[in-house]
Protein: Thiamine pyrophosphate-binding protein
Organism: Sphingomonas naphthae
Amino acid sequence: MPVPVYERILQLFEAEGINTLFGIPDPNFVHMFLAAERRGWTVVAPHHEAAAGFMAEAASRITGKPSVAIGTLGPGIANSAPAIQCALVENSPVIYLSGQRARVTEQRVRRGRIQFVKQMPLFENSVKYSASIEYADQTDEIIREGIRKALGGTPGPVYIEYPSHIITEELDLPEPLPPSRYRLVNQGADIDRVAEAVALIRAAKNPILLVGHGVHTTRMGEAVKELALLMNCPVIQTSGGTSYIKGIEDRTFQYVFSNASIEAVTESDLCLALGTELGEPVHYGRWRYWVKNEAIRKWIYVEQDPTAIGVNRPIDVPLVGDLRGVVPQLVAALKDTPLEPAPGLAAFMRDGQAELDDLAVESRTKSDGHGNLPIHPSRFVVEASEAFPKDGILIRDGGATVVYQWTYSQSKPHDVIWNQNFGHIGTGLPYATGAMLADKAATGKSRPGMLITSDSSFMFHIAELETAARCNLPLVCVVGVDNQWGLEVGVYKRTFGQGTEETGVHWSKDVRFDKVAEGFGCHGEYVTKVEDIKPAIERAYASGKVGVVHVVIDPKANSEEMPKYPEFRTWYAEGTQ
């Protein structure tokens, strides 16, 4: 039976398990949006195309599948540019679709063409693949190539457009092929290399697992848990891999921001790296805490992109393949010969939890909102993270607020969504919306979400409060408010000293996010005392609405006392890594 191009595109995406669509439709997309909703998709129109892209990126992370965002021709897709660039740096397989004027418009020698710009050249350097569906019968090959490129090697975004006259043309084609018929799926590693890796693991005395962003986005937590238990070793999180795997939370530590992680790395004689680029935030696996034992430490690196092997540091055994294929290979090979516990494992587990407990106690010596000082940021983070709902989705955003979260967070969530590699603040609210909606579309269950963020970041896409409210999300946004760009105020102070002018980093103290929330149909809370944070969060969830908790925090502490800030700055130590 003939189907129009827009419906064929949906069929091709459905074959990949995609069932969410984010964007603001125009004449190029109204047919697709209507058809998608009738087919049971979750279709979401936000208030800005960049937000649509961020929503789609979060959807990809939470489902382990590619995702789809649309931008209307001209200004719509131009507004998507920040999200496209972010998806590239964050290695997120987002497929961006755009309409375009009919090709006759592009080829004519005219000035003053409305809503028109040549779009493909704008994005070619920010995507892995850029193409146009010029003829209806190209639909299958171009969409499949886009998916193939988005997921192959290092994942990333692709851009596909079509002239307006193509979208309603009809095709008479068989049912779409399953993914395994047109692209490589769950590629395993060379069996001889797997044997070499297993031999190194069995010979190690102090192995560690280095777990990156890719472990979460491929949804491989359960298999990695099996591997960690067979290796009987500590699990070290990269800054992008901060989702805790269920069942091994007690042996999992954040690199640098947990003292136990530093000791485990320093003493290790083997590192098995999964789903990480071994980038600056882990000092390329060769500098700072990796220096000790560098001469004897062996490296096993699971990486889908063969051109990435050995770029940031020498590798002893490269396992080229998809985590979804390689981790089960390692588990199967070690199944009958699990390792004895690493010598320091019990101490790391004990000391890691003791450190978190001590940090919570230490935070309670800081200002609590009584007297002359607002709530200290460490207390804000401790209280908010202790109120995090069990099995919820945590979304992080902000500058100084995120630095405080790395050290003081008391929760160990299984799903953490935040923008680590690109450092693009303001993504929090659209990330929360996209992740929660895609999770519900994939599982049929609506899990609670908590966004812990800062005021400056929250205002980037504050209009998406309406989107979250319209979608009835069980989301609470806990906003630390110091009426300034905290990190940048700190830069002024460290550069010029106390008392200098701080141009461009302060803003109005009259803003009330609880009142703004109410204007969007959400539940608002205003908190100035630390003991009121948890009750405010509880009331926000109980309201049945999207909640916004405005928490007044100490601007001086937020800009001057960020925990382990010198460690954070080592990520930028050009020429020393």
Remarks:
- DSSP finds 24 helices and 20 strands in the chain.
- The chain has a mean pLDDT of 94.
- The CA atoms of residues 403 and 562 lie 6 Å apart.
- The longest helix spans residues 345-363.
